[in-house]
Amino acid sequence: MEPSRDNPLIRFSAFWWGISVISLFGVLVLILWLRSGGNSGIEPLEQAAAIKRYEVRASIDAAQKASLDSWKVVEEGSTVQVPPTAAFEMVGAQLIASKPSKIEDPAQVIPNTPTAEKLAGGPSADYAAVDALTPAEGTAPDAALLAKGEQGYLLCAACHGPDGKGVQAGDITVGPPLAGSEWVTGPVSNLIRIQMRGLTGPITVAGKVYNPAAPMTAMGAASSDEDVAAVLTYVRNSFGNSAPPVLPEQVKALRSEIGKPALTEADLIPVK
Ligand code: HEC
């Protein structure tokens, strides 16, 4: 063995160099751990905000679940219990499956994006002409259309409640009431445009101002003219409401609204 390799001094210093490097690393990890809050009970700001979000989310989930638990839907003539989460799972799966792609179809435009703003500058449909097509007061809705609308309402019920009385999570509005809403029995063009573009910001329903936690999403693009007409006819003739049916051709005439920014109350034809 060469004497220089077996120098006890070199061994001694190598040992302490090793120990120092390892402890330095340990101190670094300790500093990082303390900076991230340690276990002192003090949450970094970001985490504290997330906790609040999770609390709000949990209260909304609980309110929706409670409101949907008793929900039944008519299917092929018989009434069957539908799991309350089924509708959300379906929508969730569709959202996850969607990929960003070049926008060619207005139905794919997301409200409030630059593309939507550009589209908003386009010509708007003749709302008065659409409202003029509404059947006369007292026209009874078709029974088959109503039954179809009742099924379609399952999705609306998540936010507006099976009884149309709205869903509240404490003082947070998930969805305002449709029962007794002057918007529901008012001009049909308002209702169709809400389906095509969504609705955001405060809204007054039956004399009460609602400030929803999240806007109503545009849902009409994914449904046929018939399905939209059916669900709107259903809400106009349920929960104590009564108004003439909505026609598929009225829905068709307002498809050009798809892709435009979400509506606010000021964009609607005033009611009462
Ligand atoms: C994700 C929750 C959600 C779903 C699902 C939903 N809405 Fe809404 N809806 C809202 C919210 C929130 C508002 C109020 C939006 C605002 O003003 O900010 C609203 C407003 C409305 C309004 C106008 C205000 C009123 O209370 O009269 C109508 C009409 C309406 N929705 C109909 C429907 C119909 C019909 C469906 C089913 C096809 C539906 N909504 C599904 C959340 C929802």
Automatic annotation (TrEMBL):
Domain Cytochrome c: start-end pairs: 144-239
Pfam families listed in its UniProt record: Cytochrom_C (PF00034)
TM stretches of this protein: 14-34
PROSITE patterns on file: CYTC
Keyword Transmembrane appears in the UniProt entry: yes
Record keywords: Heme, Iron, Membrane, Metal-binding, Transmembrane, Transmembrane helix
Listed name of the protein: C-type cytochrome
Species classification: Bacteria, Pseudomonadati, Verrucomicrobiota, Verrucomicrobiia, Verrucomicrobiales
